[in-house]
Amino acid sequence: MSLRIRIPKRITRGPSTYRDAVVRTVVAVIIISVTVLLAVFAYYYVRFERIVDRRMRGPIFASAAKIYALPKTVTLGEPIEPKEIAAALRHAGYSEKGRGGDSPIGTFQISKDGILIAPGPESYHAPGEAAIHVQDGKVDRIAAASNPNLAAYELEPQLVTALFDAQERSKRQLVKYEDIPKTMVEAVLAIEDRRFFQHGGVNYLRLLEAAWIDLRQGRHEQGGSTITMQVSRGFFLSPQKTIKRKLEEMLISIELEQRFSKKQIFELYANQVYMGQRGSFTISGFAEAARSYFNKDLQSVSLSEAALLAGLIQHPNYLSPYRHPERALERRNLVLDSMVETRAISRPDAEKAKAAALKLAPPNVEASDAPYFVDLIKDTLVNRFKENELNEQAMRIYTTLDPDLQRAAAQAVDDGLKVVDAKITKLRTRRVKVGKGKKAKYETKVLPGPQAQVALVAMDPHSGKVLALVGGRNYGTSQLNHAIAKRPTGSIFKPFVYAAAVNTALAGGNVLTPVSMIDDQPSTFTYGDQIYEPRNYKDEYHGQVTARYALALSMNNATVKLAEMVGYDKVADLARAAGINSVKATPAMALGAYDATPLDMASAYTIFANGGVKISPTLVTTVRNSQGQVLANFQPERKPVLDPRVSYVMTNLMEGVLNFGTAYGVRTAGFKAPAAGKTGSSHDGWFAGYTSNLLCIVWVGYDDYSDIRLSGADTAAPIWTSFMKRAVELPEYHDTEPFQQPAGVVDVQLDKVTNALATPTCQETYTAAFVAGTEPKETCDQALGDHRGILSRILGIGNHPLPPAPPGTVLKPVTAPKPGTPAPIAGAPAGQQIPGQQAQPGEDSKKKKGVLGKIVGIFKEDKPPDQPQSPPPQ
Q: Which of 25-29, 172-176, 603-607, 851-855 tops mean pLDDT?
């Protein structure tokens, strides 16, 4: 039996077989692709999980030391309302009792007749309630458990700023989600991510919409990022817009959503989001933005302000309300409309908020953040603490800064520099010939040159507390602190020469007094093998003048001559004792040729303003840890330098500088409080001045040490005046008093002609202070040497000795008075006035003499010196 096997020639495949193969291939590809994608996803998920772990391990945000201002003091009789006190307490972190949780810093409760204050465990003050009663708008009683009749009560210190990160120059204030106002949360969600509390970290529909818009426009402009994705980018990624970065954002967002609650993610966002620039600092987070833009705590922002902050998130610099207010308002209104759409607010509420005007904090960083002051604090603390130690332990640094006075200083500098800039521009303006021949034309051009810089230091002359400090015109462009930069002191050094002279009253030997006569003539001074030939302003010399007059008009030759009479070494010893350590005992010293900083000079001038006791500047009072425990206290150094009698006589002399000398512009500008001071000019402009409770030094000059070609009376004195006028309007500095005269000083009436004791026959008089026993003993009659007979005196017959000619080389009749002119200079002969001064109202410029008048010489023409065409000598 045989078998036959037929082998078919070909195998036929049907359509279903092909489909199965394709399906299997596609499935295989899908499985492989999904496997690869899952593997890639798993790889990146694990990778980013580790990144998130590292970034979120420990403190998410670097801790920062907080810097607090000097506590504001409420005093009996002060005009203030309870709501104003409440606002200050709220700004310092207190909460109102019964409205939400109690703040650990403290609570307050307003009543119909006052306010009850209860410091908390984290307060600067010890626990213990205090009640401030207000009646008719004034504080009438302050009571505490320890004392029912207090004269004053210190409120909680205000937070000035956080100590910034030295590398990133970023500033932020951390807040918890519970401390973010509901209005702020709703504003952000309405404009940035409406479905934040519903999606899982990625809003795919919004992402696809953004991708489609970008594809159509050919640009990467649409973000489509959720708040979670923005947190991912801000903490872990670069801001570069690429597909890879977007995918990484999504992966990290998913990771964050797995690890944190929605509230925690929003809290991260609220503390991390970029909100613009302030000077050279980056503003990070909503809390710092609220303080920077509105000078408010985040909890206190209004609906309109919350909408503005939410709107800034998109493009903080492009939408800056300072540079582009119209853009900021348009964006704010868009946020308000979005809040209506999300039903967060009603349409009437939105329209009311839209009508609200922008009420921004002053754009001047100096007015609120005091960055030069903060830099100086860091320098002060560097010997005791490391910067990272200050920040990591979140230390609290309590300073001497007065926020109101700092704002006054910043405004005065800002306004004053505009005037200085205008004067400099005028000096640099020239008529320049352009072209040749008949086609030549003249054009007005402003020559290039450096920009004027400035420093202002204000301190309490009795405690040494530095209350305000401005170190430059713009911290954003230059962080060089001119308040601690050494410059030649110019004529603000001269009071130390005169103080050494007055001090001879106590040292014995040749006694010099305010009316000692000094020769103001061109002179050559030698010191060792060196020759010094000082020159007066405009080469004007005045002959024999009193020391009082020489200081008032800042005469150079007379001052060097006085230093020579006293002894250069004695002047140098006094200056060094006052803290001006660079001086050398040379003739040039008398005119301020040696360097000192504005802060040095503020301390040095305390020997005049503080009864002869030098007090060192203090910027920090105490440093505490985050729990409020004291880590370090700071006290100023006190050093007796001058006898109080000499100090008072010098103050009296420097009052003359303002009342009839080179700083008389201070008075014509409207500052009327009792004050003393001195103008100064070297290559720079200076003014040093003080009242009974405030001392201030102002410097203006160029960084390259070139000559500013303007006097201190033109540059620094107006800034000082503007600052002091603002200061005396504040309650703490309003009560300026006449300077207190110590025992051992006498005031005497002197004759203007002879500078001797006045009698009824010598009617032109002035008052001057002397160390008791050094005042003039001769009367004006005796000084005139008028020993003629009675008939001769009546008829004016015979020689009548006259005192030396007053300052000014050419005399002329008094002209008609001008409004606002100073009184005749004290210490100068009758009829003589400072350069540029006119006769007083009510005086006739010329008097006609009768026959008898011509014979007896009863009438004399008042002859002031020629009026200079530029400022008086400095």
A: 603-607
Of the candidates 757, 747, 764, the residue with the CA atom closest to the CA atom of residue 828: 764
**pTM score of the predicted model:** 0.79
Dist. CA 838–CA 717, nearest whole Å = 22
Distance CA 258, CA 328 (A): 36
**Which residue would you say has higher pLDDT here, 565 or 781?**
565
At residue 517, does pLDDT exceed 70?
yes
Q: Which two tokens stand for residue 460?
A: 């309490």
* pLDDT for the residue 655: 98
CA–CA dist 452, 708 (Å, integer): 8
d(CA 655, CA 676): 4
* Other Cβ atoms within 10 Å of 464 Cβ, number: 24
pLDDT (tens digit per residue) in 200-246: 888 777 667 666 666 666 555 445 688 988 888 877 776 666 677 77
Query: Quick one: tokens of 692?
Result: 């009974």
Distance (Å) of CA 557 to CA 340, 488, 560, 848, 873: 77, 18, 5, 39, 11
Token pair 């009617």 is at which residue? 763
Give yes or no for residue 597 having a pLDDT over 70: yes
Mean per-residue pLDDT, 856-874: 30
Provide the strand spans (E) within 736-849.
745-751, 765-771
Amino acid at 83: K
Q: Express as a percent the part of the chain with pLDDT over 90.
A: 55
> Count of CB atoms within 10 A of residue 334's CB?
16
Q: How many Cα atoms are found within 13 Å in the side-chain-facing hemisphere of 57?
A: 6
Contact between residue 309 and residue 187 where contact means Cβ atoms under 8 Å apart: yes
Q: In whole angstroms, how far apart are CA 142 and each of 134, 137, 536, 567?
A: 9, 14, 58, 55
DSSP classification of residue 604: H
Domains of the chain, first to last: 71-156 (3.30.2060.10), 161-367 (1.10.3810.10), 744-803 (no CATH), 807-874 (no CATH)
H or E segment to which residue 100 belongs = none
> What DSSP string runs through 168-204?
T-EEE----GGGS-HHHHHHHHHHH-TTTTTSSS--H
**Dihedral, 49, 50, 51, 54 alpha carbons, nearest 10:** 120
> How many Å from the N-terminal Cα to the C-terminal Cα in the chain?
144
**HSE of 801, CA atoms in CB hemisphere, 13 A:** 12
Residue 812: CB atoms within 10 Å? 13
* Residues 764-781: tens digit of each pLDDT: 899 999 999 999 999 998
* Cβ contacts of 581 within 8 Å, gap of 6 or more: 596
- Report the distance separating Cα 326 and Cα 315, nearest Å: 14
Our CA dihedral for 714, 719, 720, 722, rounded to 10 degrees, sits at 120
Length of the chain in terms of residues written? 874
Low-confidence winner among 51-65, 525-539, 553-567, 586-600 (lowest mean pLDDT): 51-65
Q: How many CB atoms lie within 10 A of CB 646?
A: 27
Residue type, 485: A
Please give the average per-residue pLDDT across 717-737, as a whole number.
95
- Identify the residue whose tokens are 């029912």: 148
pLDDT in tens, 272-282: 899 998 776 78
Q: Which two tokens stand for residue 161?
A: 């700023």
Sign of the four-CA dihedral 409, 716, 694, 607:
positive
The CA distance from 276 to 187, in Å, is: 18
